[in-house]
Amino acid sequence: MEIREVFARNLKAARLAKGLSQEELAFRADIDRTYISSLERSVYNASIDVVDRLAAILEVEASDLLKRPPEKK
Amino acid sequence: MEIREVFARNLKAARLAKGLSQEELAFRADIDRTYISSLERSVYNASIDVVDRLAAILEVEASDLLKRPPEKK
Questions:
Q1: What is the pLDDT of residues A9-37, one digit of tens each?
Q2: Fewest Cβ atoms nearer than 10 Å: which of A47, A52, B11, B16?
């Protein structure tokens, strides 16, 4: 799985776990809502600064957002 | 600790653990040697694509390169 897709899935899961809309997360991170939407669709190659900023708001570690799901056997 | 510094330290540690010089890592990743040097000095805000490409060469997970060291008590 491409790392952008890994990040996209983890970002969306962490956002939903916090009960935040894309709008609310975007507002808190001072990022455009369309950018959050694009990240969740694997459109952009996020920088680690952005990953860390979003992680802080979502109360997870930046490394958690890049964790690949276990391989299917 | 800033995420760039976390990445810088982990990148350098993983590179040295593999016994690679900055030149060798740069060559294998098809990245300029000065870019690797800058990443290890926290100068640039790496993208997750670059983090993942370097992780693959160093045989670690992208998430490992963003892991913060345990907090000092």
A1: 999 999 999 999 999 999 999 999 999 99
A2: B16
Please report, to the nearest 10 degrees, the dihedral formed by the alpha carbons of residues A8, A10, A14, A15 taken in order: 10
| Contact present, A49 and B7 (Cβ < 8 Å) | no
If you measure CA to CA, which chain B residue comes closest to A52? B3
Instruction: Please judge whether B47 and A49 are an interchain contact, meaning their C-beta atoms are less than 8 angstroms apart.
Output: no
Q: Which two tokens stand for residue B18?
A: 């593999």
Chain B's closest residue to A56, CA to CA, is: B3
> ipTM score of the complex?
0.91
Chosen CATH of B3-65 out of 1.10.260.40, 3.40.350.10, 3.40.50.720, 3.40.190.10? 1.10.260.40
